[in-house]
Design a protein that fits this description.
This protein is mainly alpha-helical and 255 residues long. The chain has helices at residues 9-14, 36-39, 68-94, 99-111, 119-126, 133-158, 162-178, 190-204, 207-227, 232-251.
Length: 255
């Protein structure tokens, strides 16, 4: 494990409460666990997650496993998510004919990379009374993130320069924003969605969309400034620059 955690005394003690598993991504098709990394949503190394006995991923973010404090915080998060998942499992087992209980469990497992849903299946579950709205919104956010990442991938594969990539992502994110889709302002991709959408709207003269995107961008950036006081001055300057650009376009009578 990177950082030498496996050699640390604290790791020896911590590992007594879990079942450690180190997956080596060999990319050999005849290896039984060659696709584990992708199945749990891994995107980079090192990726450390907590899972339950069924393979459901219990941590919402990947961490660098280099210190005890990080793993203890992740373990607490995992136990909280496991309790939520176990409650949904109990409700589904108790009510096998209850579509809402079964749907809520399917939704929770899909969010935990332990099962999958088609968009049609998700929309059907989302309409059921009794399915927690928090689960529905979390899954809707996940679908949007996948859409944004797909747009970035397409742009990266077709663009021959940084400028082309930026333009392609801007156009895609603008269309997504115009369709009414939104990310929570505390999501790591929020500033990207709103920033790209705003910049593309400014470029094509769509003042109304630029203003709407800026309002979300500003909220996301203000939150980032609260969480990173050392960067507040730089963030505030960036927000002020965008505010002036949007204000100038709107006051100038753009569409």
């Amino acid at each position: 494990m990177e950082g030498g955690a496996l050699l640390s005394d604290w790791w020896v003690e911590f590992s007594k409460d879990v079942v450690p598993y180190l997956n080596v991504t060999t990319r050999l098709e005849d290896s039984s666990d060659t696709h584990v990394f992708g199945q749990i949503g891994g995107t980079g190394f090192p990726t450390t997650v907590f899972m339950d006995h069924t393979g459901a991923v219990l941590t919402d973010s990947w961490m660098y496993p280099g210190e005890l404090k990080t793993l203890e915080e992740a373990k607490a998060e995992a136990l909280e998510n496991l309790a939520e998942l176990d409650e949904l499992r109990a409700q589904a087992a108790k009510n096998p004919d209850d579509k809402a209980a079964q749907g809520a469990l399917k939704l929770a497992l899909a969010l935990r990379h332990s099962g999958s849903l088609t968009r049609e299946e998700f929309e059907a579950i989302a309409k059921l009374n009794g399915v927690p709205r928090s689960l529905v919104e979390r899954y809707r956010t996940q679908l949007l993130v996948e859409e944004l990442e797909a747009a970035q991938k397409v742009a990266g594969e077709s663009a021959t320069s940084r400028e082309e990539f930026t333009a392609a992502v801007g156009e895609a994110f603008y269309a997504i924003f115009k369709s009414g889709k939104r990310l929570p302002i505390d999501h790591e991709m929020a500033t990207g969605l709103y920033g790209y959408a705003m910049d593309h709207a400014l470029e094509i003269g769509d003042g109304a969309t630029a203003e709407a995107a800026f309002l979300e961008f500003e909220k996301a950036m203000n939150l980032a400034a609260e969480e990173n006081p050392d960067a507040k001055e730089r963030i505030d300057a960036q927000v002020d620059e965008k505010r002036q650009a949007v204000k100038s376009m709107v006051s100038g009578g753009a569409k």
